[in-house]
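Table 4 source record.
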Amino acid sequence: MTSDAEKVVRRRNPDRTKRRLLQAAIRLFSEKGYHGVSVDEIVAKAKSNKRMVYHYYGSKNDIYLAALMEVLGRLESTEFQAVVAKGRADQQLRDLLLAYFRFLDANPEFYRLVLWENLEHGRHMARSATKLSKNPFMERFRVIIEEGVRQGIFRPPADIKHLLVNFMGLCFIYYSNYYSLEISLGLDMKSQRGREMRVTQVIDLAFHGLLAK
């Protein structure tokens, strides 16, 4: 006869299985891209079976999209938390840059999946364009910039969305071009001192170009 404890374990297993499949998919797709990974590899890494992929996600396309949405969701949460605190607008943007660097350091799957998806012309991401367009961080970012302009801290940007891209790009290139920067420019990409120099340089460039005279 099955005990109550065993029944609880069985009820929890489906959630754990689904999560293991997703984590395996994130790891593999970030390493090899969409076309370099098979469903068989995902289930082998997750120690599951093929039927579970189709049961929980529907198809390889669907589990890839779930993996992509998972890592993008991590970024949205990190950035939003970084700018939601009260304080001067310029300090909040400094906090945002620091948070983005820390996020990229801790989430290599994010920038690898983003790079792979751009090689795919964003075709998977386009399937969730509506979800991606609803970005609470973007609205908070807009408020901070507008407040900074009113306070005389910032000069008005030509376009808020392009400004966000500029901030992200200054950080992201250190990860998207990690090896080529290390080899071609001899940058110190591994040490703590090298990481601190990236942050210092980006903040200096961003704020001396953005702060009002």
